Amino acid sequence: APMSKPLVYTITFVVCILFQAGISPAISVAGCAPDFLLIPVMLVAMRSGAGAGGIAGFFCGLLYDLMGANVIGGMALSMTIMAMVVGLLASNLNSTSIATVVVFAVVASLFVELVYGIIVMLTAIDAGGAAAVLVFHSIPTALYSAVFAIIGLLTIGLVLADDAPSMPAQLGGGMSRNKMPRMKSRLK
Q1: If you ran DSSP here, which 8-state letter would residue 4 be given?
Q2: pLDDT(172) > 50
C-alpha cells in the first residue's frame, strides 16, 4: 500500500537533512557538493503546490544557510522562488512522469545554484572571480545535485500514493481534469 504524503514528506526531510550534513561534504568533487535539501523542496512543490513548496523552500534554504554557507538567506531566497515556480508549473503537468521529474530537477537545481551564486557574488568583497565561480562551481554543483534529485524524486514517487497537487478546477490554468483524458488518447 502507498504511504501517506505527510509520512513520506517527514521521512524525506529527515533523511535529506542527514545526507546534507553527513554525506554531501564527503562526496564533494572539486569543491562541488550535492544539495540534498533540493529533494524535499521539489517533492513538496511538485506534489502539494506553490504555497507548501515555498514554505519548504524557505525552511530548507535557511537550514542550508545555517549549515555554514556564505550568505544567510541566500539559499532560503533561491529555494523559495524555485519552489513556488515549480509548484505553479507542476499543477498543470503530470508531475510523476520520469521526463517531467528529470527536466524539473535539472532546471530547478541550475536555477537555485545560479541565483545563489549571483547572491554570493553580489555580497562578496572580491567579486572578481565570480563569473568563474558560476561556471566552475554553480553549474557542476547544480548538475551533481540534479542527479540525486532525479534518483530521490523517482524513488519517492514509487512509495507515494499517486496523486496530482490538489487544485480546484477553476484554478487549473484552463487545464481542467476532464480535458486531460481526451488529450492523452489523442497522443497515443
Answers
A1: P
A2: no
